[in-house]
Specification:
heterodimer; A: about 250 residues; 9-stranded mixed beta sheet; two-stranded antiparallel sheet; 6 helices; about 30% strand; B: Rossmann fold; 8 helices; about 30% helix; binds flavin-adenine dinucleotide; binds adenosine monophosphate
């Protein structure tokens, strides 16, 4: 039996309008659509893929967050996770989140821990590496392919993106694997999945005491753009002049 | 408490993102009133190591050996950081940097800050900012730790030289017993300008109608010394290779000049390119959302505009 943990972050859909509370202290969540972070969904899909290959697997979806993240975990259950866990704390600092997940993993003997390559809210890309370090496990970042040819061997064959190409790796399990495009295709939950998700277990666990080393002071809006300088199609050379004057070409 | 730069070598030498990180690290060291040192791990060209002096690095710690993966890299960097009691460890936000930085942060119990473009201010409790929510917000951060591990966004910081004399020291007796993945083989991407490092990127979308029309995009890119990129549907349809796909689910880039041709500017595309410093948009639809964040725009048929653009550039080159 392969025990797989899929770490899921709960993020605003990219198309959603972003507004902050009046004092800029936090995101104003009214009217914001939240989704499973797309990179985490790749990990979930890959885990389900192992099941379809005929391997015996147990898939747990986990999110560090308040009660508002439960619909996101239910969606992971509808897509195909067997059970879900919510660690009841606001996810702020990456180190805090990684520590909470590591504490949860302690003694549970997961063989594979999937994460996304990054969360699309802050693009921090920190939790997976920190988690691997806390667990003292092997780690593959930005994985684009993964196989476990022989589950008995406790090794996986993984490809990852590196500067200048792709690296083929042999990975001892347990391992933290951060996923990106290529490792699997997203799946749309079917009606049976959605109905079944309601009955699957979702447990809530309390966080451990842990420090937050990075804290939000304030949010603001980036300076507005919107002074596009237009050129007529027949004036392409004037555009080239402008670019030349700015030293861009 | 010096600032420590992790100078990541590719095939023994350093590339531009390392010099950006070095300049960032130098500026941080200046603000702290301390010196800048560097650590290299694995085989490094001696001239390249000494050359770090041009960026203000006064001492280079060389951890020698040739088979390192992330965990061992992180152990080596952390070991040097501890030995000199570094206030901050700075590295480039390359693929390796992203994998190593979080591990080093945990080893040092340091605060981890990724993708920075401004130097944290010691006078203001190391406050710094980062982009949030696909470029729709800016978040101001505060550090509650004595040490920091920072990655610097590629193309996010301007390289400057600050020459000093530099000494090389070998770190002996480094051995790692880290458990980690083993790299068996490197499949090199086709030669060409790396998309994340490119100063100029020429990108095209579904407006191109089909892969057979890409010759002009490549010609334009080669005239400009630019890398080529594309929108997601273009790579999904296999008109272009997947590694060219930029956006929320593709690569995030911030070149000095981004030229978007026949791309509508959907929010998921913008999520990967909106931090480009100058944006040119060529699209026949005046309502295309891309124009809202463009600096320069031409409303017109790309099959007419792009050849003119090529001709105009060629006439200048000579
Ligand atoms: C979860 C999710 C993630 C996504 N991630 C990404 C991502 O990472 N990157 C990405 O790019 N997209 C992404 N998308 C898709 C995105 O929403 C858009 O569908 C996509 O960016 C559109 O690509 P396009 O602009 O090439 O094509 P279109 O939207 O079809 O636009 C083509 C443009 O070309 C113009 N045009 C056509 N003919 C001509 C001509 N002759 N001359 C000049 N202009 C012409 C048209 O006016 C139009 O504006 C994602 C979508 C989802 C749901
Ligand atoms: N609050 C969270 N709960 C569970 N997993 C998380 C959380 N935040 C981040 N992760 C995991 O870490 C990955 C990278 O996130 P980040 O470091 O925030 O960019 C995500 O894709 C998730 O797999």
């Amino acid at each position: 039996m392969l025990k797989i943990l899929v770490c899921i972050s709960h993020v605003p859909d990219t198309t959603t309008k972003i507004q902050f509370e009046g004092d800029g202290s936090k995101l104003n969540k009214t009217g914001v659509t939240f989704i499973i972070n797309p990179y985490c969904e790749y990990g979930l899909s890959r885990a389900i893929g192992f099941q379809e290959e005929g391997k015996k697997v147990a898939i747990t979806a986990l999110c560090v967050g308040g009660p508002e993240v439960e619909p996101t975990l239910r969606r992971a259950l509808a897509i195909g996770a067997d059970d879900a866990v919510r660690i009841n704390a606001d996810a702020t600092d990456a180190g805090f989140v990684a520590k909470q997940i590591a504490n949860y993993c302690n003694g549970k003997e997961f063989d594979v821990i999937f994460t996304g390559k990054e969360s699309i809210d802050f693009n921090g890309s920190l939790v997976p590496g920190m988690l691997a370090e806390y667990l003292e496990s092997s780690f593959v970042s930005y994985a684009t392919h993964m196989d476990i040819a022989d589950p008995e061997s406790m090794t996986a064959q993984v490809k990852r993106e590196v500067d200048g190409g792709e690296e083929v790796m042999e990975v001892p399990l347990p391992a933290v694997i951060s996923c990106q495009k290529g490792i699997a295709e997203w799946r749309i939950p079917n009606m049976r999945g959605i109905m079944g998700a309601r009955k699957k277990p979702l447990s809530v666990v309390s966080p451990n005491e842990s420090l937050e080393l990075v804290a939000t002071v304030q949010f603001s809006y980036p300076p507005a753009k919107g002074n596009c300088q237009y050129f007529q199609p027949e004036d392409v050379s004037k555009l080239v002049d402008s670019l030349t004057n700015k030293g861009l070409v | 408490m010096p600032v420590l730069l992790f100078a990541e070598a590719s095939e023994g030498v350093f590339k531009k993102p390392i010099f950006e990180a070095a300049t960032f690290a130098y500026d941080l060291a200046q603000k702290l009133g301390t010196d800048l040192q560097a650590v290299t791990v694995g085989p490094v060209d001696a001239a390249a190591a000494t050359g770090l002096g041009a960026y203000g690095v006064s001492k280079v710690h060389q951890v020698l050996g040739d088979s390192f993966v992330n965990a061992a890299f992180a152990s080596a960097v952390a070991k040097v950081a501890e030995s000199i009691d570094a206030k901050a460890v700075v590295m480039a936000q390359t693929y390796n940097g992203r994998a190593i930085a979080p591990r080093v942060a945990v080893k040092l119990s340091a605060a981890a800050l990724s993708g920075l473009i401004t130097v944290p201010d010691p006078a203001a409790g190391f406050d710094t900012t980062r982009m949030a929510y696909s470029g729709k917000g800016v978040e101001e951060l505060k550090v509650n730790a004595d040490q920091m591990v920072i990655t610097v966004k590629t193309n996010g910081y301007k390289v400057e030289e600050h020459p000093v004399a530099t000494t090389l020291v070998e770190v002996s007796n480094f051995s790692s017993n880290d458990v980690d993945a083993v790299a068996l083989e490197l499949i090199k991407a086709a030669e060409g300008i790396s998309l994340t490092e490119a100063e100029t990127v020429v990108s095209a979308g579904r407006g191109m109608k089909g892969p057979e029309n890409w010759a002009m995009i490549e010609e334009l890119a080669s005239l400009l010394g630019a890398a080529t990129a594309c929108s997601k549907p273009v790579s999904d349809m296999d008109w272009r290779p997947h590694h060219e796909h930029v956006g929320q689910t593709g690569i995030q880039i911030s070149p000095t000049l981004y030229i978007a041709i026949g791309i509508s500017g959907a929010i998921q595309h913008l999520a990967g390119v909106s931090s480009s410093k100058n944006i040119v948009v060529i699209n026949k639809d005046p309502e295309a959302p891309f124009f809202k964040i463009a600096d320069f725009g031409i409303v017109g048929d790309l099959f007419d505009v792009v050849p003119q653009l090529i001709a105009s550039l060629k006439s200048r080159v000579g």
